[in-house]
Each structure stands twice: as C-alpha cells, then as structure tokens.
Amino acid sequence: MLRAIEYAFIKWTSIARMGGAFLVLLIVAVTGAVGWYAANHLSVNTDTSEMLDPSLDFQVQARKLRDAFPSIKEDVVVVIDGATVDEAEAFTDALAERLSTRDDAFREVFAPSASAFFRRNGLLFLPLDDLSDRMERLSQASSLIETLATSQTSAALFDALADNDSLAEQADLGAEALDRIYDELAIVAEASISGETRPFAWLGAFAGDGGNGDDESEATGDSPPPGRRLIYATPNLDFTRLQPAKPALTALKADIAELTDRFDGRVEALVTGDPALRAEELSAVSSGIGASFALSLILVAVLLYFAFRSTYLVVATLLSLLVTLVLTAGFAAATVGELNLVSVAFTVLLVGLGLDFAIHLLAHVQERRTGGQSLKSALRGAAHDVGAGLTLAAPTTALGFFAFTPTRFDGIAQLGIIAGAGVLIAFAVAATLLPALMGAAAPPAPRRQGRIIQGVFRLLERGSIPISIIAIGAGIYAATLLPQARFDADPMSLRDPASPSVRGFEKLFDDAATTPYRASLLAAGENDASAIAARAETIPEIGSVRSLASFVPANQLDKLDVIDFTAGGLAFALQAKSSEEDPNASPAARDAAAARLMDQLEDSAPSDAKGRLLSALDALRGDRESFDRFDAQLFAYWPQLTERLFAQLEASEITATDLPQSLTERYVASDGQWRVDLLPSKDVRDHAALERFVDAVESAFPDAAGGAVQAEAAGEVIAKAMIEATGIALIAVTLILWTLMRRFDNVLLVLFPIALAAILTIGTSVLLDLPFNYANVIVLPLLLGIGVDSGIHLVLRERHMSHGADVFQTSTPSAVFFSATTTVASFGSLMLSAHRGTASMGQLLSIAIAFTLVCTLIVLPAAMRLRRGRKPGRA
Amino acid sequence: MTRFSNHLRKVVLVPALTAALAASLAGIAAAPAAAQGAANQTDGSTDAAESASAARATAFVQELLANAEAALTEEDATDAARLDAFQTVLRDGLALDLLSRFVVSRKVYADMTDDQRSRYDKAFPDYISRQYAEQFDGILGRPLEVTGTVSRNADVYVRTEFKREEGSPLKVDWRTRARSEDRLEIVDIIVNSASIMSVKRAEFTSFVAANGVDALLVEIEKSVRPATLPSEESIATDKEALPPEASPEAAEDVQAPPADR
Lengths: 875, 261
Prior knowledge:
Chain A is mainly alpha-helical. Chain A contains 33 helices and nine strands. In chain A, strands 3-4-2-5 form a four-stranded antiparallel sheet, with helices on both faces. The radius of gyration of chain A is 36 Å and the shape is elongated. The longest helix of chain B is centred in the first third of the chain and has 25 residues, at about 50-70. The interface between A and B is large, with 37 and 39 residues.
C-alpha cells in the first residue's frame, strides 16, 4: 500500500513539475476567482449561543425566552456614573430625551430615573424603614428648602443656615444634616476657588442619597454608587449589516460624547448589552490584525529562511500557504457560508498544518540538492522519501478533523469540516504548486546547510532518555489533573476587560438587582409566577425573585402616610415663588450673610465640616470672582431638586395596571406569559458560585433559561463534545494508520507522543488556571494535527533509513521543528493581545506546541531507539 | 417612658411649638385683624371655593385656640378641671383617629389584638392632648399672626407666625381637614416646616420595634395620669420672662408641680 502511494506521489509531482509556468498561472487564476467568491460570500457570526446544537434542552428554553422577550438579547444598557447624584440625573434626563427622539435608531427607551412614573412613585419602592429615615432627613431640611424656594441666593442660604445651626445646637437635632450641607458647601467653594466645575449636589445633600462621588460614595460589594443611573434602549436592527445594531450604537455614542463634553467629563456613560459587547469584540479582534499579520509573516519568513537557506523556497512556501488559505476560505464560503468564533480560527490551523507539507517536501529537496543531485532527481528522491508520509498524513489528519462533525458543539463541528478540507487542500497545493514553481523557475543552487540545528539534535539525542522519563513522569502527574480541566463557556472571559462595554457590564454586578447572570423562567400568568416566586424564596442560592409583581411595592399605605406627613412641611414651599427684585441677590448682602454664618459657626460647637466651611468662606470673601463662580454653581441643580422632590411628594397608591408600558413589556409577553427572574445570592462571576446557583435552580426549575444557565450548560456540553470529538478523532486516526501501516507498533509510536503532549497541555492548563474557551479550544485539534503529521513523518522516514543510520541525521526532524516553530511564530504573539480570548489562544498554543515538540522530537525518537535496541549517541 | 419623653423634649421644635400655642392663646385679641389679613394673603388662589375653604380653616384654627385659652384661664375651675377642659378642646379639634393610626403605623395598628387596640384607642387621646397641655407653662402671651393659607390635596394649611426677639419668626402651620361637611379637624401641626406628628411617629415606631406593643401601651397609660396645670399667676408673671426660644431644660421645668417653683 505504501509503495503504491509513493509511486503515485512521484508521478504526480513529476507531472506538476512539467506543468511549469502554465500550471502556476492556472493555479493563481483559480485562486483569484475563489478569493473573490470568498470575499463576497463569507461572513462571521459572533453569537456564541448559536454555536451549540439548537435542539439541546437549554437552547430550546433560551429560544422560547428570547422569542417571548426579544429585548433580553437586543437591548443596550447605558450605565451612567456621575460625580454627584444631581449630575447623573441631569445627564440621564438629557440622554433619555435625546434617544427618545431618535425613532430611526431606537424603538424603545426606558430610563427609570427619568420616567414620570418612577419620579412620582419611586419612594414607595424603598423599604419602610429607609423611607422613614429619608423623610426624616428631608424634614430636617424643609425649613431651608422653603426659604430657598423664595430666594435662590447664597445670602438667603447663609442666613437660613445660621438660623438652623442655632436651633440645631439647642436641640441636639439636625446637626448631622447641617454638617452634610456644610461639607457640600465647602467642596463647592474650594472648587470655585480652584476654578473647577463642581455644582452643589442638592439631591445628595437633602435626600440623603450620598452622591458626593468626590469622596466616599464608591460602590461597595453590595450596592452601586449613589450617582449611578441606567438607561435601557432597544435598537432598530439592520440585518443587512454584519453588525445589525451598529447605526443605533453609533448614534448613541455620538450623543454620549456630546453630553460628556457638556458635563465637563464629570459623568461617565458606558454602553453595554449584547449588541455593544459583540460589536466591540469584533472590533478588538480585528484591530491591529494588520500589524500582527505583518509581524507574523516576517517571523515565519525568518524561520523558513533558517530552514531552507533559500529566499526562493521561502517565497514559494509562503505562496503555497496563501493559496491554501484562499482556497480553504472559498470552500468555507461554499459549504458553511457563515463562520463562528471557533471556526474563524481555521487560519491558525492551516498556518500550523498547511506549511507542514511544504516544509517537509522542500526541506528534503534541499537536503538532496545539497548532496549534489539535480533538481529533477532531488524532487523525485524527495517524493520517494516523504511522499508516502505526506500522502498518509493528509487524510489521516483530515479525518481526525472530520471526526468533530458529529458533536453537538456546532462551533467545533464547523471547524472540523473546514480544517479537514483545508488540510487536504494544503497537501494538494504542496504536491502541485511547489513542483510547478520549481519547474517554471528552478531554485538557485542550495547553500551549505547550517550545522547548528544538527548539533542541537545531537544534544537532544544524548539527553533523550532522561528527558523522556521526566516527560512521562510529568504526564502521569498531569493525568491526575485531567478531571479538573474545564471549558469556560462564559463569553465575557474572552473580552478585553478594559473595553467600555465590558467595564459597563461589570458595573451591573454592583447592584444585585441588575446582575446580568440570572436564571429566567416563563410562567403561564400571574398566579404561576407567584407560585414560582414562593418556591424560589426557599432556595438559599437564590437571592431574590423579580417579576412584574415586584414593581408593586409593599406597605404602600404606611409609606404614603410617611410621605404625606413629610410633604405637609413643604406645603408652603411648593407654592413659593421667587421675588423679581430680591434684596439678597446683591454682593453686599452675600458678604454680610456669609459673615453672619461664619460668626454662628465660630460660636457653635465645632465640627470638621464647620471648620472646612469656615476656611472656604474666608477665602471666598476675599475673592469676588470665585464668589461669583460659587454663586453660579450653588443653584445650578436647584430646579432639578425641587422638581424631583415635589414630584416624589405626590406619590399615590399603585397597582400592576398603573406600571409604565415600557416596564410591563419587559415582564409580560404579548401572549400573556410572565417572565420571572431568579437572581443569585452570591456573586456568580466566581465559577463555583455559578455552578451551585445553576444546579439549585435547575433542580427546582428544569425549564430555566437565562445567562447563568446558558454559561454553565454550554460549558458542560462543549467539554463533553470536545472529549467525544477527541476520542472519535483518535479512533479514526488509529484505524487509518493501522490500515495503511499494518504494524501496530508503528501506530503506537505515532499516537503515543500525541497523547502525552495532550495530557501535558491539559494538565498545565489546570495548573495555570487557564481554562479552555471558545477561542483557544482549537489548540487540541491543532496539537492532534501536528502530532499526527510529525509522528507519521518520523516513523515513515525511519523506515527508509538503512540499518544503523539515525533519523536525526535527516532533514525530517528539522522539518518537524520548523513546522512547529512557524506555528508558534505565527500566533505566539497573540498572547499579548488585549482580547483575552485571543491572548489565551496564544498562551495555550505556545504551551501545546512546546510539549508537542518535546514529545515528537525527544520522546518519540527515544521510543524508536528503544524499539531498535540502540543506545543514544551511537551511530 | 423617660427616654421616650426626653426624646420628645429634645425635639427642637417642641419648645417652639409650645411657645406658639401659648402665644396664640394670649394674642387671640389681635388675631381677627391679622387673620383677615392672612385670608387676603392666600397665595395664588382666585378660586372662590378655595378662598372659602381657607377662610373656614382660618376661623377654625382661631376658634380652637380661643377655646383652649379660655379653658386654661377659667377662673372658677380647679386645676384639674381646667386641664380636663383644655384636653377636651384639643381632643375635639384633633383628628385623633387618623393620628393614632399614623403615629404607630397602620401595620402595627392592624396587627394589634382586639385588647391592645382597645387599650390604645382609649389611652391615645388623653396621651396626646396631655403631651401638649404639659408644655404650656411660661409660654403664653406671645403675639401671634396668621400670615397665610395654602391648599394641598384635601387639606388647608393655616400658617401662624410669632415673632422672636432674635432670629426669624417662628412659623407654625396648622394642617386642617374637613372630616364632614360641617366639621374640621387638625391633622398635623408643623413647626418651622417640620411635622410634629412625623416626629411622634418616629418615636413610637422605634419604641415598638425595640420593646413591643405592650410596652408602648404601658408607657402611654402610665403617662396618662393626673397632671398639674400651671397657675394663672405663674402664667402671668412668666410672660415677660420667657426667653426667645425655650430650651429643653426649660421644657423639663414645666413638669415640676407649682409647689416646687
């Protein structure tokens, strides 16, 4: 069988050589046409949920949920953080208003803080105790509010504060509230003196929202910062584009940029949500690809030059690689049409495997020509020596990839089809184009081959036994780590953590109520939803339940009483009007009032806030310009405060039918189904916590869907699929090798280093906490492909050696070495990428190739020598 | 209920409240003209019904305060009788049913047993009226001015002010509500924009949360005991001696029986 293959290969390459320039031009023309076709028919789909078999149970549930509530998948979320609550609210209002007018870009905009319904009734959603505290704080400030309602001047404020301070001192009540105001005044005064923008945060000072983001109001693990607001926007999708949400996202980011400028950068707005995440991911993956590609090309060219010592052969090899890639892309366009995040890496595989055939063939040609043979003889001789190996390696490796197709992981199945075909194309190109090129234009006479690499191999040969023992020992230990290997199916693990959409996504975890990783259920109606909620509340892993019923507050009557009686204190303020000629508006009145306040502060019991304000006022009084600036900043957000406070005081009892439609639509589908969200009690960014949460939910609710379920279930399916695919591939490869080699020991020699390298790679990924993911999962099939090829080449080359000769004295080990290192050179630099998925691919690839080289060039030859009974170092 | 009472006294607004009440009683002769002026000052209201409501509320407040003054200064009555009469005036004028549920919270009230509810309903009117009555000493005679009214939802707020020797005038708003066609009641008293009933509610709810309903009932019932009214002489002689703002210490002095003074 092998002889027949050899003969056929010799014949084919001879014919190709005779085809010469004509054949080269024909191949180039076909490649050009196929390239054009691929460019116009090949696209990329970054939706990871579509990489799995749609008939899987959790996929079916996910689809039902998405069909009922498309906003889950389509919404963008704007996460707004202001230095103060006032600025965040003003920014949110302005942005929500703008987006609402962009009917072409967004069909729905929901901004809770800007919604008239929540402005009016928002207080009802606070727990009763919190509401009482807040109303007590407001009550303490009511007198001040009423005073300022008629005169928004610093003089009126200073006088009112002096009065209140005096009363507060006598009654030991209100001092804390006043200190908050003093602190805030001092901050504004200091900023005014420095020439900075810092409006007085009325909402923060009076409503007790904190919101002084300049100081301490950073998010704790349990709650977001006070100055955080969210806007949910459903974009109009243009499905003729690669990124359907791009026009809407572009408009949104333009509005945000303009508003950010208007607020002097004191408000940050990050756009997240599925459309934004995927758009930025595509951009991150593709950005810098030109420079990266150029660098890789240079590194590969340098390595090939070391391998061949011939510029002609380097160019020929790269040309064959290019033709292989283009033809494979054309195949992909014709068969699958749309690549996914896994199959898009076929280029990586083909650089690793596609150069293999060219390197082996050309390296052997060089070896013979260096020995004095003519080009024709050298090519014929090379075909004789390596033809069988090349011809055996191609279908063996291809079949190994085709073995991925039966799995339920469509991502790897698609890659299997494309890569398998690509390997066959690479073989065909190497066997056809390279001889044709050499026939068209003979390569120059070869230079003397360097001896460095030969020297290195001799050293390795001497140390092969101890190295092999260590490698096998390490492999045994690594085998014990295999059960800990996992597939991280969380698409967030791939993304650049510094990108705006990912940062915004992470911020959603600051508030348990907005955590993106939750489980969701479809309930037949309200009663069913209530039953689900009741059952869910008994499960400790579930922190809270959210459905439309959650938006009807409890204890409304008591809460309305509290609000109503607090509102009584502002009854006159609600109708107060500023006088047109306000005597407090003059600088003289301002100075005098400041002096009175300073006297009161000095005379009363000291506090840090009073001390700070005293210093600030003292500086202001001597600086008219700063004092004017202070005035302007003092009441910049006063109208916003009164509008919000007075709206809140008009709260009224609400039922589910009173809720805004934009909210109702998110929880009740058009067919009447209710959506019930189960939120985790722990931070499920920790994988163990995610696992416990999903297990607990699925035990009680097998039909659960949602992001948390998707991440966990997908990981399990993919891990299982990878094991299945690898197992099928190994069986298929074994059968082919056995069929063609007919010697079981040869089959073992080929498979053993692959298995060892795979075990070492997986064990290392466990030790380094480098889980497999959608990006780096191709490392295992790549390892299989390179390992099979290299093993076949070495085993079959040894078959041709005369007794006593050593395979390390041939070009085959060099070809194996350079084949592997060109792969590392092509993609090892990826580990520096900001995209985490790409970086992990570079890391794991480098590890896998290193182990493959050790196992193929050290362990395998040691095993071959053991079989022959040779000792290392002897000829 | 020492902590309870002390907390009450510490409220900055209580001294001002008592001063306002006493002042309104003493200055009642000047009220009609001022009230007439106040009616004219009703802001922004051109609606006849609103004007009528405002006038009715103003008259009600004035009548209530006049009756309270009269009860306290009845020459032929004993101290106990005057106090009873004063409490009767307040009980008749306050929306006790609303206030009793508000200050303890509807939920706590609804969760009470029948016995608890019965005890609470019985003791609360006396308790709340006694709380105001005990604050009267040394604060009568201040001139009071009705400066305006405002309507909000179903209520009319009548604002009275009394001048202080230092600082801005003390504002006391009376929140009135029509309980029937011919009857108004006081729903809240707001001193310098702070609701007295809200303060009272904060005290009651925190006390119940810490000690339970039964303990609250014990405290309320204990504080509903015969109290001693200040004598007329003490009222008259202290009129001029009243400091601009009554201190918590001064308010505590009110508790001492006249014999100790």
